[in-house]
Amino acid sequence: MATASGEDGGDLLDRLRAQGVVRLGIAGEIPFGYIDKDGELTGEAPELAKVVFKRLGVDRVQPVPTEFGSLIPGLASQQFDVVAAGMYINPDRCAQVIFSDPDYQMLDSFIVRKGNPLGLRNYADVVAKKARFATGTGYAEIQYAVEAGYAEGDILIVPDQVAGLNAVEAGRVDVFAGTALTTREVVKKSARTEVTEAFKPIVGGKPHVDGGGFAFRPTETRLRDAFNVELAKLKKSGELLRILAPFGFSEDEMTDLTAKELCGG
Fold first, then answer.
1. In the prediction, which pLDDT does 7 show?
2. Which end of the chain is flanked by fewer CB atoms within 10 Å, N or C?
């Protein structure tokens, strides 16, 4: 596919090098991409972008905050150059943008009472033990539980992982499901609960893994490919984990998945 400049693969990387700055679309989501209390751009995606773009010859990054739902339209209308928001790579989005390979994968885990008295390790256990189950508003975990055989009407829906922790501590539910990252972080403040080992939910009979990456306009394959080369080096050296660790990411979130696999290709 050719750009307006007529050059296959796009000329954005050349233009960014000439300008010395890349505009990053972010959605104000902790820990993915946000402006901190000092007014500084941070989060796992912007911090990784700073390192990768410096290696590509672009010294500065500039945040362009928007709503999450406006990230792909904003990219298409050139409000920013790259989406740096930890966006999950899925077939619907792959039809609109091109993705870098994922810089992290996301598994699920449960918040349970200390000692995990019901022995809950996955959604099948929740169903088998008839455990009282909670998860967050709009979370993918609702569907994962239903797929395992849990009645949707029996799920306690709470606003977020903090409310989920409170529900487990108060004994209103036996288990709260969320991403391994968010559950692991929130239980650090709790003496009465623990987090289970991260696991892959079963979707369509197969273990399912989400992965997040950077989105580019479909014409900008040269930039995406150059980004992937540097990302692969950071994965191999272990530097990627060092960049992401301050935001709660662990070895569990490191992945060798490709964008092609997550796009369903």
1. 58
2. C
Using one digit for the tens of pLDDT, what is the confidence trace for 133-174? Answer: 999 999 999 999 999 999 999 999 999 999 999 999 999 999
CA 194 – CA 160 distance, rounded (Å): 17
Q: Which whole number is the average pLDDT over 182-198?
A: 95
Identify whether the C-beta of residue 85 lies closer than 8 Å to the C-beta of residue 225: no
Cα within 13 Å of Cα(93), Cβ side: 25
- Is pLDDT at 16 greater than 50 in this prediction? yes
Contact 94, 264 (CB under 8 A): yes
